[in-house]
Structures are given as C-alpha cells and as structure tokens.
C-alpha cells in the first residue's frame, strides 16, 4: 500500500548536518561514518531489531523481478545490500560507492569472507559526481543513504544519468510513522534511546542524534516521489513498511 508522508521540517534534510559546523555536509557525513564504521553493523542490527534484513529483502525482490545484472549500490556503507544482491542474483555484478573509506574497508572484509570479491567491487566516490559513463547500469540502489546527500535532487539527477533506459532505481529510506500508537513509541525510541546507545557504543556524541533529525527532515512519501520525477524518473512509487518506519521507493528511467 502506498502511503503519503510529509517531511516534518521546513528546512529540509540538506540543512541537517552531523556536527553542525561550517563545513559542507558531505565532509561532515564522511567524517561521521569513518568514526562509527567499527560499530555500524552492530548498531544497525540493534536499532532495527534485525528488521533491516527484511527491508533489504523487499528491495532485492524488486531487482530480481526486473532481471537486472549491472547494479550500482550508492552509499553502500559496509556492503550489506551489495552482498545480499550478489547472493540472491547470481548473474549480477555490483559496484558499491561510498564517501567513507572506513565503511568501505569493513565492507571489503565482509565481501572477502563471503567469497564474493569477484562479483562486488567498492570505490570511494561522491554521489553528486559519479565516476561512470551515461547508462552504465541496469539498476541503482540506495539503502538508508539519500538523507545524507548534500543536494538530494542533484544526486537523483546523477543516478538518472548513469542508469540505462528502462533501468530501475530502488531506494530504501527510514521514515516517520503516523499512527496514534506507533508515533509516540517511535519518537521515544529514536530521539532518546538510540542516541544514548549510540554514544555508549560508537563514542560519537552526534552521530546517533543526527539520525532522528535527518529522518524527520528528509522528503517522505509523495514528496520524495516528486523529487524523483523532477530528476527525470517515471513511475515513482512509495511503499511504506513496518508501520511506516521504512519506505521503499522505486522508479524507472
């Protein structure tokens, strides 16, 4: 079922930064993920109680149905989605890019341990300046990364450029539930429990406070679909999951 969700913040997610200093958002995001890379996978599982695996499965099913082979995983992080794609789509090859070399290093170790280093390659790159030719990929995925883009529309336009005609864009992003019962519990969990746990485990004071702030500010539901259409995509759709705490967005070139 599609669910329209509006952003809570009039500022927009581009103005929400991890450390709130004068540097560009890109530099702050890179520093943050380098800082939390060793604890990232543990925190991811703990924060979502493992449900993030289900969300990735939903995204991979869309890729499987589209019969894609050349996949670009933007904001790949430690490679969870890239690894899942490689395992479930045996004819695919995946290129993962990320700002954070620290995250990519963790990803490379995981890929090698999984025996998938011949199918998955990683490189440090900025989503706003993708180092690829026009139409190079059948599909582009982004898992929990678009709210970290310094300029979201520009990022979508770059992804549109390197996607082949008929190709699939598949974006997973955290979102804000609207239910009368789920909303207060969600707010307590994301605004208080997660930041406290993040400070204890990752030692980065700001990283897990930035998380709920960026979720609240990012375009959601139809608002996100409009951005995709503005970048050139067609058939943009939002599919809310798990009481609206995560949304799967799909679109075509």
Can you tell me about this structure?
The protein has 253 residues and is α/β, with parallel strands linked by helices. 45% of the residues lie in helices and 20% in strands. It is globular and about 45 Å long. The relative contact order is 0.19.
What is the secondary structure topology, with strand pairs?
Layout: H1 25-48, H2 51-66, E1 70-74, H3 80-88, E2 93-98, H4 101-113, E3 120-124, E4 137-143, H5 152-162, E5 163-174, H6 182-202, H7 207-217, H8 222-230, E6 234-241, E7 246-252
Helix pairs in contact: 1-4, 1-6, 2-3, 6-7
Summed up:
This protein is of the alpha/beta class and 253 residues long. The protein is built from eight helices and seven strands.
Descriptive labels:
single chain; 253 residues; alpha/beta; seven-stranded mixed β-sheet; 8 helices; 7 strands; 45% helix; globular
Structural class call reads alpha/beta
Radius of gyration: 17 Å
Are there runs of 5+ residues with pLDDT below 50, and where?
Answer: 1-10
How much of the sequence lies in strands comes to 15-25%
- How would you write the strand order of the largest sheet? 3-2-1-4-5-7-6
In whole angstroms, the N-to-C terminal distance is 22 Å
Taking the sheet with the most strands, its summary is: 7 strands, mixed
Q: Helix content range of the residues, please?
A: 40-55%
The succession of helices and strands, N to C, reads: HHEHEHEEHEHHHEE
Number of helices: 8
Q: Report mean pLDDT, rounded to a whole number.
A: 91
| β-strand number | 7
Name the shape in a single word: globular
């Amino acid at each position: 079922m599609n669910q329209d969700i509006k952003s809570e913040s009039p500022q927009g997610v581009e103005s929400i930064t991890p450390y709130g200093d004068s540097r560009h958002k890109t530099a702050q995001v890179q520093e943050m993920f380098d800082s939390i890379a060793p604890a990232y996978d543990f925190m991811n599982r703990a924060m979502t109680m493992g449900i993030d695996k289900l969300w990735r499965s939903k995204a991979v099913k869309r890729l499987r149905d589209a019969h894609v082979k050349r996949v670009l995983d933007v904001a790949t992080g430690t490679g969870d989605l890239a690894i899942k794609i490689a395992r479930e789509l045996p004819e695919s090859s995946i290129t993962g890019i990320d700002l954070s070399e620290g995250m990519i290093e963790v990803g490379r170790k995981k890929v090698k341990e999984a025996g998938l280093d011949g199918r998955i390659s990683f490189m440090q790159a900025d989503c706003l300046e993708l180092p690829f030719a026009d139409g190079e990929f059948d599909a582009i995925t982004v898992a929990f990364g678009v709210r970290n883009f310094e300029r979201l529309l520009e990022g979508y336009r770059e992804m549109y450029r390197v996607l082949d005609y008929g190709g699939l864009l598949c974006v997973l992003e955290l979102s804000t539930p609207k239910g009368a019962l789920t909303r207060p519990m969600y707010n307590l969990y994301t605004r208080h429990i997660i930041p406290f746990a993040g400070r204890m485990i990752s030692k980065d004071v700001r990283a897990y406070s930035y998380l709920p702030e960026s979720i609240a500010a990012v375009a959601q539901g139809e608002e996100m679909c409009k951005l995709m259409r503005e970048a050139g995509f067609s058939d943009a759709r939002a599919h809310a999951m798990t009481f609206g705490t995560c949304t799967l967005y799909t679109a075509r070139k």
